[in-house]
DNA sequence: CATTGACCTAAAGTTAACTTGAACTTTTAT
DNA sequence: ATAAAAGTTCAAGTTAACTTTAGGTCAATG
């Protein structure tokens, strides 16, 4: 069903450097499925996982946090309520991103001398800043 | 108009440690307005700036990128088109975040044995992955 | 007027996420 | 059969964003 491919093929198809793949394996984020001689072999399913990892990182998760989302067998493991609360956290983050984006957009069209002092700009920032209370990320 | 406050007051009101404030000043991200004796004095307007910096960081900008958004005098400087394209970049990022969030939410309610192999999950991920082509962030 | 507490500088240390380098070992191509 | 290409390990190096430490300064308080 799934094909075993070597590290350069994984690298080629995913864009993730071989050195990073070894590093990820060391960290337990991904696992090779065996060796051919001395060379690692990966299951093609690693490509989905790498895709998820990349997205998760861009979404602001650390590698440790991402690793925590999987069982040692590589299956998404955390329970439903944990998944939901991660998703809720992300909602906050999305709100903040939108505020910054809107702030930038407003600044691009506003003639105030210093945008930080512009009341509209401040209103946009404040909206996002709310969630910011000691989040400890 | 604006009041000069010392580093501990800035720290107290912003939640940013004094060591970080000194570090930010060294990097040129913020500026003190003078000294009383040996002690730095800051204009209260630094609080808005710190708020913006925190938000920018949570939005995924590096300190250097944030610094680049201001003139040396601390005014948002980059031109309108640059501001707009930063905002457009953020739109992509928001899309990705939403995809990951939706993916997590779906996973919380899906009975597939491995979510990475679930076609709905994959569809959600793919939607975001598109923008991912060599972004070099 | 001596000590305490808030602040200062400069340099070194820390963590995450990688990358690079050195020294080997297999494969693979000629 | 041999040399280059592709992998491997393990250790050390790199960058960003801070924090910590050591030693010094100064204003205020007992």
Description:
Two copies of one chain form a homodimer. Chain A is elongated, with a radius of gyration of 21 Å. Chain A has a three-stranded antiparallel β-sheet with strand order 1-3-2. Helices cover 55% and strands 8% of the residues of chain A. Chain A contains six helices and three strands; from the N terminus they run βααββαααα. With 137 residues, chain A is mainly alpha-helical. Chain A binds a DNA duplex (30 and 30 nucleotides) through α2.
Please describe the topology of this protein:
The structure is a homodimer of 137-residue chains.
Chain A: E1 4-6, H1 7-14, H2 18-27, E2 34-36, E3 39-43, H3 46-58, H4 63-67, H5 80-108, H6 119-129
Antiparallel strand pairs in A: 1-3, 2-3
Helix pairs in contact in A: 5-6
Chain A binds a DNA duplex (30 and 30 nucleotides) through residues 6-8, 17-20, 22-23, 27, 36-40, 57, 62-64.
The helix fraction of chain A, in percent, is 55-70%
> Runs of chain A with pLDDT <50, length 5+?
131-137
Strand order of the largest sheet of chain A: 1-3-2
| Span of the ends, CA to CA of chain A | 40 Å
């Amino acid at each position: 069903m799934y094909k075993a491919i070597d590290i350069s093929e994984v690298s080629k198809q995913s864009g993730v450097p071989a050195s990073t793949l070894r590093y990820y394996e060391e960290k337990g984020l991904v696992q090779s499925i065996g060796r051919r001689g001395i060379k690692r072999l990966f299951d093609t399913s690693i490509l989905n996982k790498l895709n998820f990892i990349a997205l998760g990182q861009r979404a602001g998760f650390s590698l440790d946090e991402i690793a925590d989302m999987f069982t040692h067998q590589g299956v998404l493991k955390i329970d439903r309520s944990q998944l939901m609360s991660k998703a809720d956290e992300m909602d906050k983050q999305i709100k903040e991103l939108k505020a910054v984006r809107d702030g930038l957009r407003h600044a691009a069209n506003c003639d105030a001398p210093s945008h930080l002092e512009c009341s509209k700009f401040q209103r946009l920032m404040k909206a996002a800043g709310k969630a910011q209370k000691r989040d400890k990320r």
